[in-house]
Design brief:
mainly alpha, Cytochrome p450-Terp, domain 2, three-stranded antiparallel beta sheet, 13 helices, about 5% strand
Length: about 280
């Protein structure tokens, strides 16, 4: 789908023509009628699965059977892994302080979904760039490693703080994507990068879920900006499950006591100079 040129408010101020200022190609609504990407909403509700409808919203066209199966696979692959995710902890922390609605806690969890907490956006950016060089996977992998190790000392999409041998979600996603022809040039580039890093480090560093998702979504043709959002939305149901559990069964107003690792590492007790103190009555 071609991306239209960026607009800016100055052009509207200068021309005085605001006729297309609020324009969308996603949906249209009139009295008693709604169309999404040109399709009547009732047809979509009757004929599409949730993941197929999501694909249409994001890409503008209906997915093929292969695309629909792989997209659904990617969306469900995150599921949950206890409290390892900072996003789940952020959501539960907020829910413990605001149990009246799940929405603020959902927002907290979504806001905690970034490069450190496993967003697939950075791995996708790395893979799209490397594939775009149009070189052999080995050459692209070596170049990508040099760039990312120099840029931030780590390679996105590889490694996990707990799963040192293999990341079970990433293993399952990669295996099923391969079986369904969903592990294509971006997936092969990720394999090459993982192999190149293993040679440099002289030990295997597993592909993590963010890396596998970045590859699969990129191979489906999603742009990297949308891939970042898909990573957060794909984990959204797990966040909601955590939030409901926290409100129903958790601890109101969670704290971090010393017994759970809270430590003070600042100066010992001290006092202002006498000249700075106010006299007490």
């Amino acid at each position: 789908m071609a991306v239209p040129p960026r607009r800016h408010v100055g052009q509207y101020v200068a021309s005085g023509d605001w006729s297309d200022y609020w324009t969308t190609r996603i949906s249209r609504a009139e009295k008693g009628k709604i169309w999404v990407r040109g399709y009547p909403i009732a047809e979509l509700i009757e004929g599409l699965s949730y993941s197929e409808a999501a694909f249409l919203l994001l890409r503008g066209e209906l997915p093929s059977a292969r695309e629909a199966a792989i997209f659904d696979l990617a969306l469900r692959s995150g599921m949950d892994q206890q409290l390892i995710s900072s996003a789940a902890c952020a959501a539960r922390y907020t829910a413990s302080a605001f149990p009246d609605s799940p929405i603020p806690a959902l927002a907290s969890g979504i806001l905690a979904s970034g490069s450190v907490t496993g967003s697939p956006q950075e791995p996708a950016e790395m893979l799209v760039e490397a594939v775009g060089w149009k070189v052999a996977p080995e050459e692209g992998a070596a170049r990508a490693l040099d760039q990312w190790l120099a840029r931030r000392g780590a390679v996105p999409g590889l490694g996990h703080p707990v799963h040192k041998g293999s990341e079970p979600r990433a293993v399952a996603l990669r295996r099923l994507a391969l079986e369904q022809d969903g592990w294509r040039e971006h997936g092969r580039m990720l394999d090459a990068i993982a192999a190149a890093l293993a040679r440099r480090k002289r030990r295997a560093i597993p592909i993590n879920l963010a890396g596998a998702l970045g590859a699969v979504y990129a191979d489906l043709g999603f742009e990297t900006l949308a891939i970042g959002g898909l990573g957060a939305l794909g984990y959204g149901m797990a966040l909601l499950a955590h939030i409901v559990e926290e409100v129903r069964e958790g601890v109101p107003l969670r704290i971090i006591p010393e017994a759970l690792g809270a430590r003070y590492a600042g100066p010992a007790e001290r006092h202002l100079p006498k000249r700075r103190r106010k006299s007490r009555p």
